[in-house]
Known about the structure:
- The chain is of the alpha+beta class.
- Helix content is 38%, strand content 14%.
- The protein is built from three helices and two strands.
- Helix 1 links the parallel strand 1 and strand 2.
- The longest helix has 14 residues.
- It is globular and about 35 Å long.
- It starts with 13 loop residues before the first strand and ends with a helix.
Amino acid sequence: TQPINHVRADAPPFLILHGEDDKTVFPRNAIALDKALREAGAVSTLKFYKGVSHADIVLSLSTWMRNRSPSLGDVTRFVRDKSQ
């Protein structure tokens, strides 16, 4: 359940999205995972969203909740960039 315990250099590229209003996962966890991946030699991108909760990041992938965060656009760009 702790991704940081499975960090390795040959990990696929990571996109870590974190809401600044997240009460489920502390920001330090996202920061530590990003740092561990980079130090291992893996590719990692960390983005923070102001005023966004833990659930808002996923909810904003849906049509009806798209305005909660820019996560859909960030995920789309990340996948396009990494698939080329």
